[in-house]
């Protein structure tokens, strides 16, 4: 290979590396609509016979107006409900949330184990670690945000992302 060809090859490789670095943030596990950004939507893997699963994410609102997560869908579930876990009289409770999850202006809301979360009901199949599936999160003002949920191992806290 001539020196000129080698130089062109090195330049092409360098340009390709720069292009990959530039798309890195775009390839991150974040989904946006207006000022609302859904960061790393994920679920835990489920045992083979499970009919429900839990969904989680961080929701960031970069806008000057509050918003509210009002519903969600998942292609692997017959329906999705928004739930909240809490401690009442020393007993852990879980209940559906009426009116959705508030997302403050210039702030965040967490869908996390032990708090607000999505309940994927009527699962169509077991959720296996390493897979992903499509869904949506619908906000009162920002509208519907298409998302992709990553399936993490049973017992995951989501902290790896």
How would you portray this structure in words?
This protein is mostly beta strands. The protein is 13% helix and 52% strand. It is built from 1 helix and 11 strands; from the N terminus they run αβββββββββββ. The chain has one helix spanning 3-23, and strands spanning 30-33, 36-44, 52-61, 67-74, 77-88, 91-96, 101-103, 107-111, 116-123, 132-139, 143-152. Strands 1, 2, 3, 4, 5, 6, 7, 8, 9, 10 and 11 form an 11-stranded mixed beta sheet that branches. Strand 10 (132-139) and strand 11 form a beta hairpin. The longest helix is centred in the N-terminal third of the chain and has 21 residues, at 3-23.
Can you give me a brief rundown of this structure?
The chain has one helix at residues 3-23; strands at residues 30-33, 36-44, 52-61, 67-74, 77-88, 91-96, 101-103, 107-111, 116-123, 132-139, 143-152.
SSE sequence, one letter per element: HEEEEEEEEEEE
Number of strands: 11
- CA radius of gyration is 20 Å
Tell me the strand percentage band: over 45%
Mean of residue pLDDT values: 86
Unreliable runs:
12-27
Structural class: mainly beta
Q: How far is the first residue's CA from the last residue's CA?
A: 44 Å
Major sheet characteristics: 11 strands, mixed
Q: How many helical elements?
A: 1
- Measured as a percent range, the helix fraction is 10-25%
Overall, the morphology is globular
């Amino acid at each position: 290979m001539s020196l000129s060809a080698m130089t062109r090859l090195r330049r092409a490789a360098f340009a390709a590396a720069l292009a990959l670095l530039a798309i890195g943030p775009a390839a991150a596990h974040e989904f946006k609509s207006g000022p609302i950004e859904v960061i790393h939507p994920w679920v835990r893997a489920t045992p083979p016979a499970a009919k429900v699963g839990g969904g989680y994410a961080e929701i960031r609102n970069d806008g000057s107006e509050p918003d509210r997560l009002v519903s969600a869908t998942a292609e692997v579930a017959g329906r999705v409900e928004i739930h909240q876990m809490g401690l009442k009289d020393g007993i852990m409770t879980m209940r559906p949330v009426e009116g959705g999850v508030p997302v403050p202006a210039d702030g965040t809301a967490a869908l996390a184990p032990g708090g607000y979360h999505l309940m994927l009901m009527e699962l169509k199949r077991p959720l296996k670690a390493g897979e992903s599936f499509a869904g949506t999160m619908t906000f009162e003002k920002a509208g519907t945000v298409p998302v992709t949920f990553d399936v993490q191992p049973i017992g995951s806290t989501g902290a790896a992302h």
